[in-house]
TrEMBL record:
GO molecular function: oxidoreductase activity, acting on the CH-OH group of donors, NAD or NADP as acceptor
Keywords, sorted A to Z: Oxidoreductase
Protein name (Swiss-Prot/TrEMBL): SDR family NAD(P)-dependent oxidoreductase
Gene3D superfamilies given in the database record: NAD(P)-binding Rossmann-like Domain (3.40.50.720)
Amino acid sequence: MSKSLVVITGASSGIGEATARKLSAEGYPLLLLARRVEQMEALNLPNTLCRKVDVTDVKAIAAAVAEAEQKFGPVDCLINNAGMMLLGLADEQDPAEWQTMFNVNVMGMLNGIHVVLAGMKARKSGTVINISSIAGRKTFPNHAAYCGTKFAVHAITENIREEVADDNVRFITIAPGAVETELLTHTSSDAIKAGYEEWKDGMGGVIAPQDIANAISYAYNQPQNLCVREIVLAATRQQP
């Protein structure tokens, strides 16, 4: 392959799907990971391996990466996009939902990093792009646990960036505002979902997954000696 392998988690819809389409069009071979393999395979992208993987299973990630590297060569970029958004008040929300979010949003991200980072350090090259949120920079009503996971994404990304800077490995945070994805459907409260939709309508609509894919492409395609540490992007009319 003339270009290096990119791994994308949560690639079956939304930001992950849009990013897969974007980077495939740019000529990158891909390993797409998600629980819904049929939707990834339906994209019918060239030089792409699709595997049904839960990011909370580090052994499954490692097996899929090993298979893809056999076919396409070493991973040059990992895009940790898989995530859950389960909104609710701290005294009302089922604690199991908090655990699910931390397992996917934080441990899932760390699992992917654990699998690819040693190889990147040894090769003195590589990029990890973690999809966080504006909710990783400020708080929102009903978002306490979700914000906690995304603040963690910001902190972990910056911490590891400092650790591997001398190894010429880049760590990048992408922090979107409200995006038109399936993320809100994970929330069980109809009242919270209705309020969220009203908020989106009030700003005249939100940004599209393609907008995030474009930002990811921009950051990744910079020369290896340039690290775009963080990109924050949202609809112009989104105030918080």
